[in-house]
Amino acid sequence: MIRLTGRARAHSNIALVKYWGKRDSDLFLPMTNSLSLTLDALYTDTSIVFDSELTEDTFTLDQIVQSKEQTEKLTHFLDIIRAKAQITSKANVTSLNFVPTAAGLASSASAYAALIGACADALGWEDDHKSLSKLARRGSGSATRSLFGGFVEWDKGTDDSTSVAIPIDDGQWDIGLIVLVLNNGKKKISSRDGMAHTVATSPFYENWVKTVPSDIKQMKAAIYRKDIEMIGEIAEHNALKMHATMLSANPPFWYFEPATLLAMERIRELRQAGYPAYFTMDAGPNVKIICQKSDMTAIMDELSHFYTNDQMITSAAGPDMRTLTEEEWAESLAKKEGSNEYSH
Ligand code: 2P0
């Protein structure tokens, strides 16, 4: 019997210049570069055991054994890893999502970044985050960026070996993000389907592709200058451009809900009140506020008329993916079991 065990933690990320569309859906090569901020507050811990005696892969998420269908994507990903490692053993995968109560924010980004970290740990691979980001990409595009902390660019590259994440800045300065949880239900259209439909049918899509390079360039200059107004303005414009490609798809679709639009208005009001605060939205109704870390408490105060404390999750920039010791994994399990503060 051969058993190989590994464990890792990776944090979620929010794109400030979005990834929306693939040019190769098998290799997950994106149409454009994207750029994100990794979040300290949201992460996934994953443990994997490759075991030569197993007959199939199993996947347990937040202490619930997942169905065969729910395990399919994971198996597809593990097949890529097994081929690279030249092994055939099936695996038991256990993941814990650390996302504050009822946030509905579990992300495939932290999931696949933690999984590739755990695989590398189990297989004794050299800890090369860049190479691991390429492999995480094969599980989910946004996972490419979650290998690194702070601000991260995903270079679209020219092929499998060059489509990779690049750390830009550690984000350890006065920038933070508040996630406004407006609806924690499961989204109606997956990002994967939504982006494929947009690429295929939106007449605006080619303009999206044309304008992203300049958003990336300006965003990098803004980060370099730690210019929060400029970061926020580019991020808002970029998010709305992405959502406009969905409104112009045929048939059209959108992730916004009335509460989303209201939140956008309220963030504009925050700006009028003097806070540099900007919004961005992904493939769902929740709104993320980009702001100064030092303003987060005051902004939460202002917004407390409209939202409960549970609906506002504050985060600073998060760290790189890292492996976990056996003790740290045991602590995570205990935290999950013992705490009401976290749920799935
Ligand atoms: C992003 N999103 O850049 C964009 C913005 C959603 C909107 O990456 O098909 O779950 O697994 O590559 O990574 C969500 O897409 O899609 C996403 P796949 P993924 O964060």
UniProtKB/TrEMBL annotation:
Diphosphomevalonate decarboxylase-like N-terminal domain: residues covered: 10-165
UniProt-recorded Gene Ontology molecular function terms: ATP binding; diphosphomevalonate decarboxylase activity
One BP term from GO: isopentenyl diphosphate biosynthetic process, mevalonate pathway
UniProtKB keywords: ATP-binding, Lipid biosynthesis, Lipid metabolism, Lyase, Nucleotide-binding
Cellular compartments per GO CC: cytosol
Domain Mvd1 C-terminal: 178-323
Known EC number: 4.1.1.33
Signal peptide, first to last residue: none
Gene3D superfamilies in UniProt: 3.30.230.10, GHMP kinase, C-terminal domain (3.30.70.890)
Highest taxon of source: Bacteria
Family the UniProt entry places it in: Belongs to the diphosphomevalonate decarboxylase family.
Protein name: diphosphomevalonate decarboxylase
Organism: Bavariicoccus seileri
Gene name in the database record: mvaD
